[in-house]
Amino acid sequence: MRIAVAQHSPKAGAIEENIEKHLKLIQSAIDQNCDAIFFNELSLTSYEPDRAFELQMGLDDPRLTVFQELSNLNDLVIVIGLPLTVVDGIQIASVIFQPDQSRAFYSKQILHESESAIFIHGKEQMILTIKEKKVAMGICYESLQESHFSNCVALGTDIYIVSTAKKQEGLQAAMDFYSYASKKYQIPVMMSNSNGITTRFECVGNSAVWNNGVLLNQLSKDSESILFLDF
């Protein structure tokens, strides 16, 4: 099995333009024979909490159809980030497209205090099974809470995927934690970080992969590309 994480520079609020960026990176994953590709936090809109009501999307939004079609045609799991409309509000969500299956989603359970006035919490952890491997997702702030990580491990996780929109401040501390967690829990950790400019700050890329505490691969700050890990 080969899993990819993507790094790109989403344009704030430009959903159609960002879809095109996604499609290019998905094609790279297809060309590299990947089984799954994961994008960064709110990858389709950029990290724009203050515009969440304007940019929110439903799970059945027709603009998402192209991702399901690509998933079906290429036997590829595709996971993208967007502000998702749910019954009682908006969630920071990873929407999941699996071949010939209904759309699913995982929503951030532990919100940063700056997000809690805008978004509502996700309710439970999702574990994806891809080629018989169990994959857990953590979205930015919650991925730095060891309680979240250890809960995923208790659910039988084989691989932990981090979806984030992180600025320079705090990046090294986050990377140190992912290295530590990978070694302590003996599972690979893959981080997809945006390198786009949001209305709040600039994200700095450096998407990376760790296993047993060792940094295996890393993208530069400015790269718009994918990196992958074979299992």
Please tell me about this protein's structure.
- This protein has one domain (2-230): 4-Layer Sandwich (Nitrilase/N-carbamoyl-D-aminoacid amidohydrolase).
- The strands form two sheets. Strands 5-4-3-2-1-12 form a six-stranded mixed beta sheet.
- The model has no long low-confidence stretch (mean pLDDT 96).
- 45% of the residues are buried.
- It is built from five helices and twelve strands.
- Helix 5 links the parallel strand 8 and strand 9.
- By secondary structure, it is α/β, with parallel strands linked by helices.
CATH class: Alpha Beta
Q: What structural class should be given to the helix and strand makeup?
A: alpha/beta
Per DSSP, the total helix count is: 5
Helical content (DSSP H or I, runs of 4+): 10-25%
- How many structural domains? 1
- CATH architecture, by name, is 4-Layer Sandwich
Across the major sheet, the strand order is 5-4-3-2-1-12
Distance between the termini: 5 Å
Beta-strand residue percentage: 25-35%
Give the C-alpha Rg.
16 Å
What key attributes describe this structure?
single chain, 231 residues, alpha/beta, Nitrilase/N-carbamoyl-D-aminoacid amidohydrolase, 6-stranded mixed sheet, 5 helices, 24% helix, 30% strand, globular
